Amino acid sequence: MASLALLNTPTGKGGAHHRRRPSTNTLGSSTWEGSLEGEQGDMSPMSGSASGHRTPGGDGRSIMGMSVMSGETGTATEPDRTEGGDANPAPFLFPPIALASLIDPKNPDKLHEWGGPEGLARGLGTDLTKGLSRESLGELAHKGDELPEEDKTHEHGKEERDLEQGKSEKKHEGEAYTAKLEKRHDIYGKNTLPVRKSKSLLLLMWLALKDKVLIILSVAAVVSLALGLYQDLGTPPQTFQGSGCPEAGCVEPRVDWVEGVAIVVAILIVVLVGSLNDWQKERQFKKLNEKKEDRSIKVVRYGKEMQINIKDVLVGDICMMEPGEIIPVDGIFIRGHNVRCDESGATGESDAIRKFPFAECWEEKQNLQEGQKTKKDCFMVSGSKVLEGVGEYLVIAVGPRSFHGRIMLSLTGDSENTPLQSKLNDLAELIAKLGSLAGALLFAALMIKFFVQLGTDPNRTANEKAMSFIQILIISVTIVVVAVPEGLPLAVTLALAFATRRMTKENLLVRVLSSCETMANANVVCTDKTGTLTTNVMSVVAGSIGIRAKFVRRLEENKDRAKVESDRCERHKEDFAVDLGDLSKVVKGPLRRLLSDSININTTAFEDTSPETGELEFVGSKTETALLRFIKDLNWGDYGPAREWAGPRTVQVIPFSSERKAMGIVVRLDNGNYRFYVKGASEILSKLCSRHVVTRPVDEDEDQSSDNQDVEVDQFNELTRENIQRTIIFYANQSLRTIAICYRDFESWPPPGLHPKGDSEKDVSWRRLASDLTLIAITGIEDPLREGVKDAVEQCHKAGVDVKMCTGDNILTARSIASQCGIFTAGGIIMEGPRFRHLSEAEKDEIVPRLQVLARSSPEDKKILVSKLKQMGQVVGVTGDGTNDGPALKTADVGFSMGITGTEVAKEASDIVLMDDNFTSIVKAIMWGRCVNDAVRKFLQFQVTVNITAVIVTFITAVVSGSETSALTAVQLLWINIIMDTFAALALATDPATPKLLQRKPDHKFAPLFSVDMSKMIAGQTIYQTFIVLFFHFAGNTIFGYNSTDESVSRQQTAELNTLVFNAFVFAQIFNSINCRRLDNKLNIFEGFFLNWYFIVITLIEVGVQILIVFVGGAAFQVTSMNGRDWGISILLGIMSIPIGVAIRFIPNEPVERLMIWCRLMKDPNQLPVQSPQSEETWNEAIDQVRDKLNTFANIRGGRMRGSSFVLKSRSAQLNQAGVTLPSLLTMVPTLVAASVGAGWVPQAGSFSDPAGMDPSRSTAGLVDDGIQVHPDTPHDDFAWKKWGNKGR
Question: Biased-composition ranges for Polar residues (predicted)?
C-alpha cells in the first residue's frame, strides 16, 4: 500500500519541513490492485461554508459526487448505525461517509447536531486532550518515538491541553474507547491508497498485438510462412537449362520462406518498439515521482506527543500542525494559535483561511445578520497548507475517504482514443478492407485463369497443378500484405517517441505518449488562474509613495495601472509614473530607510528554506510576505538586522485584529524619541493621516543622499486627500489588496495626554495612537502574472487556440487577471460558476463559445465546461496545479499539470507535466503537437503512395503474367514496404518543430486525415510511379532489345530488366520522401533540409542499402548487378518525382476538392452540422411543464393512462424539482395560452444583464450581483452584446 500523497513533515525548528511524495504510476498504463465498495451516506446540501470561502466542491456541489463514494444523498440528522448505506460502524457512532460529508461540503450544522468536537470524540472513542489510548492502539502503541522537549509543541497549546486535561481526569467508558485497532481499521480504513499494479512488458506487448493492422499481419505471416516452407521443403526443386548450367540444369533458389520471415520480423519490430516505448515512459515517470515512504507526523497519543509514520495515522488521532506543513488527512480544528491555512491547492481559494475552534465558529454563525457570511472556519482539508500558527486537530477521515484520497480515486478511468488514433484506426480498417478486396479479386481472376488452363493444357502433372494453385494463393496473400501499411503504427510510435524526447528537453514531460499529437488539434485551453497564469505568490505590483510617485510592476506592460495620463488626471498633474524596478531612483536616503523599517519591523513573517525547492522563501500571511519580498527585491535591507535592532527597543505591540484591520509596533529610536509604525487597510488608515511624505521625479530630485536629512513631509489638503482616495479606489477596481504604511513620532512614552490603557502600564490604546499619522505609501498587492504569460496567450490566439480561465477565485480578481494577460477580449463573456451550472443546455450552447472567464467555479463546473466543449467538437486542453483541478484534467483531451507547484493529484490526472510551471510551455506543446501530426501526415502521404502503386502494379502484372508472378517480387515489396517505410518514418519524423507551425489554425477534430494537397500529391505520384513501372516492365524488352533465344541469357536479361524496374521504383520512393517534407502548396521542399541531419543520414543509408541489395542481394531479392546505363536510367526516373511534385502543386485545390466531394471521397467542409430543434428553443420552466402535462392528457383514452408508472414518476419528479404543483399548472393554462397566442410570443433563450455598461471600472457592484459581464469593447451589433450586453444599461 502506498502512503497518501501530499504530505509534509516538520523535521526541525522554525517551521522548516520536508515535503515528500510517494511514487506514482501512470494512469494510462496501470490498474488498481483491489477495489473499494461504493458507499452511500448523508450528503446534506451545502448550507454555507463555515469560513465564508468556497469549500471543496464549492457552491453546493460536492467532490464526493464524482468519487468512488458517490451515492444517494440523505437528510438524516442522527448518525445511526446504518446511515447512508455504510456498514454498521459499531462500536463507533459515525459511519465513515458521514464523517467525510462534514468536509465536503463543509457542514457546521451537522457537526453541531452531533455535539461538536466533543461529540465526535465520544463517538470515535478518543480524548480531545490525550488522544487515543494505549489499549485502542494495539500494536501501534509500540510504534513512534516520543518527541524530545525541544521538539514538542508550542507552550500555548500545551497549557491549553493541560488545562482541559485537568477538567476531564475521569476514565472514559464505552466500547468505542476500548475498540481494537483492527476494528478501527476495518471501519475507517488506513491512511493509504490502493497500490496500482503497473502493466508488465509482456502485457504491453500483448495489447500492442491487438492492433487491427498487426492482427492482419499476423494472419498473413502464418499463411505466408506455411506456404513458403511447403514450397521450399515439400516440393522438388525447380531447375532450368541454359549456358553455363550443369547437365541436370540450374536449380532455382529456394527462398520462398523469406517472405513469411520478413513479415514476422516486421511484427516484432512494431510490437517491441511500441511496447518498450510505453514501458520506458512509465518507468521514467515513476522514477521522476518516486519519493521515500518514510514520512512522519506529530500526534498526541495517550497524553504524549509522538512522531509516527504517516501511514499509521488513525481516525480519532489528535494531530499537530506547524507552518509549512501540508495537512495529510481531514479533521476538525481543536485548539491552536493564529492558524491560517492556504486551501488553494485543494479548493482553488486563494485567500488564507483562519482556523478557529468550533465553539467560536458556531457562536459567529448564530449571531449572523441577514446577508452576512461566516468568516470563521474549523475544518481542516487534506491537501491544504499551514501558512502560520500552530495547533491541533481531530482526524475524521484518512486514506481513500479523505478529501485528497477521494479525488485521487476519482481520477481512474479508461482514456479515449485521440483524434489521430481514431482516424488512423478508421484508415487501417478501410485499407484492410480494400486490400482484402484487391486480394480477393486477384485470387478470383487468377483462379478463373487457372481453370481455363486446366482445359487448354491437360498435360500438366498433379504436382504442377498444386504448385500453380499455391502460387496463386501466395500472390493473393502478398497483395493483402502489400496493401496493409505495416509501417504506419511504427511510424506513429517513432514520431511520438522522437517528439517526446525533444519535448523533455523543453521542460515538457509527456506522461501519455499520444497526448502530444492531440495538442496539434487543440483549439481551446481551459486554464486555472492560481499557480498557472499567476505565480501563486502574493506580490506588490503597484502603489504610491506619498502622493505623487505611482509605481507599477513592469510599467511598459501595465501603463494603465499608473493612472497618471494627462487626460484623466487634470487635477493631479504633478503625479508621475515609475517602474517598480526603478523605484530606488526616486526613494532615497532617510525615506528609503523609513519605508523599509516600517515593513521589516512591523511584521511577523519570516524567511525559511522551502522543502520543495531548497531555496529561501517567506513564511507567514500572504500580505506580510508580499511586503517583505517587496523590500528584499529592491535591496533595501534585510528584515533580520532590523528586527534585531528593534527587539530590545520595542515598548508596545498592537497585533492585527479584524476589527481595526491594522497592526502596529512602537519602538524607541536612537535619538531617544519613539516611533509608531502601523500598516493596515488603506481606506481606514488614510483617513487617520494628516500628513504625507513628499516624493519627486528623478529629474526634479533634490539631494536626498545625506543621512542627516529628515524625511520631507507635507500636510494633506483637499486636493491631495482626493488624490489618495481616488488612487485607493482605482486599485480596488483592479482587485488589488491595498495596504497603507504609516508612522507617527512621539518625544516620550507614554506620550503626554495619552493615558495608558492596555495590558501594561506603558500600553496606550489603539484609538489614542491611531491619529495624526503620516502616510508613507499605499501598496497594491495581488498574485501577479507569470513572466511571459501575456505573450503566450497572444501566441495561442494567433495559432487559433482560445484560452479560457476557470478559477475558484472571486469574479473581480478573475476579471483583473484575465484582462492583464489578454484572455478577456472584445466579444468575450465573464460568468460565475453558480450561474453557469444552472443554465439550460441551449443557453450553454450559446454561452460556452463566448465564455472567456468562469469565476467561483467548482471542480464540477470545470468538468461541465470541458464536457460541453468536447460535445461541441472542440479538442480541449486543461491546465492546473491544484487538487481541485484533477477531475477536469482527467476529462480533457489533454491535461497539463505543474511539475514544481503541482499537487500529486494534478500530476496523476494530467497527460503532460510542465516541469518549469510555465504557462508559456503550452505554446511549445502545441507547436510540437503540430510537428507530430505533420510528421504522421508526411509519412502517410509517402506510405499510401507506395502501397497504392505496389497493389496496382502487383495486380496488373500478376494477371497478365503467364506464370502468375508480378513485376515486384514479394521480398522486394517487403523491403520497400517495411524497411523503406521504417527509414522513411524515422526521416520524416525528425523534422524539428518551428514557430511557423503556429501561423495556421488548428485542424478540426473531425477534419479528414488526408487534405486536398495530400490527396493531389498521392494521386499524382501514384500515377507517375505506376506508369514508369508498367512501361518498363512490358516495353523494356523492346526498348533495350532483350530478345535472346538462349534461356540462360534470356533469364539474365529478364533479371536485369526486373532489377532496373525495382531500382527505379525504389529511387522514386527515396526522392518522393524529400518531396513529402511539405504538406502544402509551397515549392521549397528543401526548407530546413540541411538542419535535419537525421533525414540526410537516413536517406544516405537508404541509398547505400539499395546499392548493396543490387550488388549482393542475388537470389533472395531476385536481382542482378546493373551496368552504368541502367543505374543512370533508374536514378533519373527517381529524381523525376521532384519536378512531378512541383507540377502537382501548381494544380488549384478548388476543382480537386469539388471532385473529391462529388465522388464522396471527402465531406463538404462548408456543410454546417444540423442542430436538434429542441436545443434551439428555451421555454419557461412552467410552460415546459404545461406542455408536458397537455401531452399527457392527450394520451388518455377510455379513462386509462397510456403510459407506465415510470413515466408518471418521472413527470412527478420534474414537477417537484421545479416547485410547480398540478393545481397551479391547470390554473395557468388559460392565461398562458391566451397571452402567448395573442402576443405572438415565441421561445427565447434566457438573457442576462450587463452591469459593466461602457466602463469596467464602474461595473464592480453589478458584476458581483449578476455574475455575468460582456466585454465593453464588444461591437453593439454583435450577437453577444444584443443578447446580454445592453440589458443593464
Answer: 1-11, 23-33
Nearest-angstrom CA–CA distance, 557 and 580: 12
Q: Tell me whether strands 539-545 and 2-3 are parallel, antiparallel or unpaired.
A: unpaired
Nearest alpha-carbon partner for 266 in 971, 1040, 921, 1008: 971
Q: What is the dihedral of CA 774, 778, 781, 785, to 10 degrees?
A: -150
Phi-psi region of 944 (alpha: psi -120 to 50; beta: other; left: phi over 0): alpha
**Phi/psi at 886 (nearest 5 deg)?**
-55, -55
Which cell numbers hold the place of 1118? 531476385
Q: What is the mean pLDDT of the chain?
A: 75
Place of cell 512509465: 282
Alpha-carbon distance of 806 to 851, in angstroms, equals: 10
- Tell me the backbone φ, ψ of residue 1145, rounded to 5 degrees: -70, -20
| Look-up of cell digits 502464418 | 222
HSE on the CB side for 548, CA within 13 Å? 16
Q: How many CB atoms lie within 10 A of CB 622?
A: 23
State the pLDDT confidence band at 490, using cuts at 50, 70 and 90. Answer: low
CB of 1002 closer than 8 Å to CB of 520: yes
Give the residue among 649, 603, 644 at the shortest CA–CA distance from 627: 603
Of the listed ranges 6-10, 253-257, 314-318, 934-938, the one predicted with least confidence:
6-10
Count of C-beta atoms within a 10 Å radius of residue 591: 23
- Cα distances from 342 to residues 204, 230, 355, 857, 991, in angstroms, run 42, 75, 11, 18, 45
What is the identity of the amino acid at 879?
T
Is the peptide bond prior to 105 cis by the omega test (within 30 degrees of 0)?
A: yes
Residue 392, CA atoms < 13 Å, CB-side half-sphere = 29
Q: Any idea what DSSP says for residue 1172?
A: P
For the annotated catalytic residues, the residue numbers are 528
Rounded CA-CA distance 336/356 in Å is 8
The residue written with cell numbers 505591540 in the block is: 653
Q: How far apart are CA 1123 and CA 109, in angstroms?
A: 95
Task: Evaluate whether 793 touches 820 at the Cβ level (below 8 Å).
Answer: no
Q: Is 736:790 a contact under the CB 8 Å cutoff?
A: no
Q: Range with the lowest mean pLDDT among 117-121, 240-244, 1227-1231?
A: 1227-1231
For residues 330 and 392, give the distance between their C-alpha atoms in angstroms, rounded to a whole number. Answer: 12
Per DSSP, the three-state class of 743 is: strand
pLDDT tens, position by position, 1218-1232: 455 555 545 555 554
**Using CA atoms, how far apart are residues 1011 and 1004, in angstroms rounded to an integer?**
12
SS3 call for 367:
coil
Alpha helices in 397-539 (DSSP H): 403-410, 419-456, 462-483, 487-505, 515-518
SS3 state at 1016: helix
All three cell numbers of 395: 482526524
CA dist., res. 1263 & res. 811, Å (int):
8
Contacts of 217 (CB under 8 A, 6+ apart): 263, 266, 267, 481, 484, 486
312-322: b (≥16 Cβ within 10 Å) or e: bbbbbbbbbbb
Strand, helix or coil for residue 738: strand
Q: Is the N-terminal amide bond of 1272 cis, ω within 30° of 0? A: no
Distance CA 914, CA 195 (A): 25
Cell of 646: 528593534
Name the CA radius of gyration of the chain, rounded: 39
What 3 state SS string does 173-196 have?
A: CCHHHHCCHHHHHHHHCCCEECCE
Closest by Cα among 414, 424, 413, 411 to 517: 424
Asked if 527 and 533 count as a contact pair (C-beta separation under 8 A), the reply is yes
Tell me the three state secondary structure of residue 151. Answer: helix
Amino acid identity of 1141?
Answer: G
Contact 435, 944 (CB under 8 A): no
pTM (whole model) above 0.70: no
